[in-house]
Design brief:
By secondary structure, this protein is an alpha+beta fold. Helices cover about 40% and strands about 10% of the residues. The protein contains 19 helices and 13 strands.
Length: about 550
C-alpha cells in the first residue's frame, strides 16, 4: 500500500516544494552545493551578457519606505510597495496573482511592474510606518522595516528599481546558503529593462567574468584558487607588513599633534599592506592610491555619466572612475607580465594565482585580483575606522585603553556585530518562484542581503556589550559559497589588530576633536564607516 504522499501527482509535489520555508538552524559552512541538471538548464536560459561597466562599487542609496524620492522616478518612487489586499501579495515584480505555482507554471511570467497599479492597491489599505534612513543610526531604519514587513521587505533601489531587502538572520543565511534557489549571476534579472541610464548601482550588478558572479563547479574552481592563494599568506609576515605600514603612517603626522585618522591612518595601512601582497613597486603604490580614490566614490547617489563603451547608453562621455579603472587594470596586467618573466613563481598573490593548478587565464586572474582588492582594502579600512571610533568615544573602552590588548579584541568583535563594514550586499536573483519570510519571491527577482540588519535580528543578537568576544556567528563576512574565503577574515583581523595596537601604543593620549554625535558617517547604505575621525594628541 502506498502512502497518500506517494500517490500525489508529481506536479502537486513540485508546487508544494516551491513554497520554501527557511530553516532556523545554521547551515554547514563547509558545504558548497553543486548546480544540478535542472539548475544548469535554467542557467542556460539566461540571456546574453549585459554591458560591462567600469569595475568597482559606486555610491548609491537604497530608496525604501519613507526615504527621499529617487531621482528620475515617478511619484511615490521613494516608498516601498505597501501591503496588498489579502490573498494578493505585492512583490518587486508587481502583484503576484494567487498562489505561487510549481515549476513549469508561471515562472517569471506574471504581470510586469506597474507602479500606478501598485500604489492604487497601497491606497486601499492602512500604510505601515514610513522609516527614514539615518546614516548615524541605520539600525532604526532596519527595525522599522522589520516591524512593518517582517524579515523580508519590498524596497525600491535608486531610480525606483524594485528589489527585496532580506532583514532576517535566518533568511539571509537561507538565501546565501542555497545558490540553486538564489543564484549569483545577475543576467537572470527580469528588471534590466527598468534600469535607468547611468544607474549608479550598475557596477555592482552588471555581469563580469569575475569570481563573484560564478556559480556551481566554476565557482568552486575560481573561489578555491583565491582561497588557496590567500591561505599561503604567512600571518607573521603579514603582521610585519602591517607594522611597517602603521609606523610609516604614524610618522607622517606624529609631530603635528593632530590628525584625521580615516584618511591618514585607517585607509593607509590596508592600502600599503595590499600593495605589498600584490608585489607593487613604490611608484605603483602611489598610483594605486590615486586610482582607488578616483574609482571608488562614497557619497550621495549621484549618477555617473554613461560610459562610451556601454552599448545600452551610447553617446556618453567617459567618467572619471572609468579612467581610474582602466589604469588599475593596466597596472595589474603589468604585474602579471612581470610575474611571467620571472624564472620562478614569486611570493606575491598575482604570481601565486598564475601558478595555481586551477589554470586561471590572464583575464580571470585580473578580474579576481580586482575582486580581492575591492573586498580586502575598503572593508578592512572601515573595520579599523569603526573600531577606532568605538574605542575613542565609548567610555567602556576609553577606561581600559591603557590596558591595551583585551579592549582592542573586544572592540573589533563588537564592531562586526554592531557596525559591520559591509551593511548590505546586492545581490542574489531567484532562479524560480518561491516563498521567503512570508513573501512571494518570483523568478528573476533581485534580493539584497541585509548583513547589518541580520546581525541585529532580535532572534539571534548576542547580549552586548561584551558578549560578542568569541562569538563569530555574525554575518559580517556573509555566508555560504560566496562568503569571504576562509583565510580572508583572519588576514583582515591581523591587519586591523596590528594597526590599532601600533597607533595606541605610540599615541596613547588620542582625544577626538568632535563629540561622538558630531563625528560624521560616510553617507552610504552599502558600506559603513566614518567619513572623518579628527583627533588631537601630544606631539611626538
Amino acid at each position: 500500500m502506498t502512502s497518500s504522499q506517494e500517490r500525489e501527482e508529481p506536479q502537486a509535489r513540485r508546487g508544494r516544494a516551491d513554497e520554501v520555508v527557511p530553516p532556523r538552524g545554521l547551515a554547514p559552512e563547509g558545504r558548497v552545493p553543486h548546480v544540478g541538471a535542472a539548475a544548469r538548464q535554467r542557467l542556460a536560459e539566461i540571456p546574453g551578457p549585459q554591458p560591462v561597466p567600469p569595475w568597482g562599487p559606486a555610491a548609491a542609496q537604497v530608496e525604501a519606505a519613507g526615504a527621499p524620492q529617487a531621482r528620475g522616478a515617478g511619484p511615490g518612487a521613494g516608498r516601498a510597495p505597501g501591503p496588498a489586499d489579502p490573498g494578493q501579495p505585492t512583490g518587486p515584480a508587481g502583484p503576484v496573482q494567487g498562489q505561487v505555482q510549481g515549476q513549469g507554471q508561471g515562472q517569471g511570467q506574471g504581470p510586469a511592474w506597474d507602479r500606478a497599479s501598485a500604489h492604487r492597491q497601497v491606497a486601499r489599505v492602512p500604510q505601515p510606518p514610513s522609516p527614514a534612513f539615518d546614516h548615524a543610526d541605520p539600525g532604526a531604519y532596519y527595525r522599522a522595516l522589520r516591524e512593518a514587513y517582517g524579515p523580508v521587505a519590498p524596497v525600491l533601489l535608486d531610480g525606483g528599481v524594485p528589489a527585496w531587502l532580506v532583514l532576517g538572520y535566518h533568511e539571509v543565511q537561507f538565501v546565501a546558503g542555497n545558490p540553486e534557489l538564489f543564484g549569483r549571476d545577475p543576467r537572470r534579472w527580469h528588471a534590466w529593462d527598468r534600469v535607468p541610464t547611468g544607474w549608479p548601482l550598475l557596477p555592482h550588478v552588471a555581469h563580469t567574468p569575475s569570481v563573484r558572479f560564478t556559480e556551481g563547479e566554476e565557482h568552486v574552481r575560481r573561489a578555491g584558487a583565491v582561497a588557496d592563494v590567500l591561505g599561503e599568506v604567512d600571518p607573521y609576515e603579514l603582521r610585519q607588513r602591517a607594522e611597517r605600514a602603521a609606523d610609516a603612517a604614524v610618522d607622517a603626522f606624529a609631530g603635528a599633534g593632530r590628525a584625521e585618522l580615516v584618511a591618514q591612518y585607517a585607509e593607509q595601512v590596508p592600502l600599503h599592506v595590499m600593495a605589498g601582497l600584490f608585489g607593487l613597486h613604490p611608484d605603483e603604490t602611489a598610483a594605486l592610491e590615486r586610482d582607488l580614490a578616483g574609482q571608488y566614490g562614497y557619497g550621495t547617489a549621484a549618477a555617473e555619466p554613461p560610459h562610451p563603451a556601454c552599448p545600452a547608453h551610447p553617446g556618453g562621455t567617459a567618467p572619471g572612475p572609468a579612467a581610474s579603472a582602466a589604469r588599475l587594470r593596466a597596472m595589474l596586467e603589468a604585474v602579471l607580465a612581470r610575474a611571467r618573466r620571472s624564472p620562478a613563481p614569486g611570493a606575491d598573490i598575482p604570481s601565486r594565482l598564475l601558478a595555481h593548478p586551477a589554470g586561471l587565464t590572464d583575464e580571470e586572474v585580473v578580474q579576481d585580483l580586482l575582486t580581492i582588492m575591492a573586498a580586502g582594502r575598503r572593508p578592512t579600512a572601515d573595520w579599523i575606522g569603526n573600531t577606532l571610533r568605538l574605542l575613542l568615544t565609548d567610555e567602556r573602552f576609553a577606561l581600559t585603553l591603557s590596558g591595551g590588548r583585551r579592549s582592542i579584541a573586544q572592540a573589533l568583535a563588537e564592531v562586526l556585530w554592531s557596525d559591520p563594514p559591509v551593511q548590505n550586499v546586492i545581490g542574489r536573483w531567484a532562479t524560480r518562484d518561491t516563498r521567503l519570510g512570508g513573501r512571494y519571491v518570483r523568478r528573476g527577482d533581485c534580493l539584497v542581503l541585509g548583513l547589518a540588519a541580520a546581525n541585529a535580528d532580535p532572534r539571534v543578537r548576542p547580549a552586548l556589550p561584551g558578549g560578542a568576544v568569541g562569538n563569530h556567528a555574525h554575518l559580517s563576512f556573509s555566508h555560504g559559497a560566496h562568503r569571504c574565503p576562509a583565510p580572508a577574515p583572519q588576514l583582515a583581523e591581523v591587519v586591523a589588530t596590528t594597526a590599532l595596537e601600533i597607533l595606541l601604543d605610540r599615541i596613547p593620549d588620542l582625544v577626538p576633536a568632535l563629540a561622538a554625535d558630531e563625528l560624521p558617517w560616510r553617507p552610504s547604505l552599502w558600506q559603513r564607516g566614518p567619513a572623518a575621525l579628527p583627533v588631537t594628541f601630544t606631539p611626538l
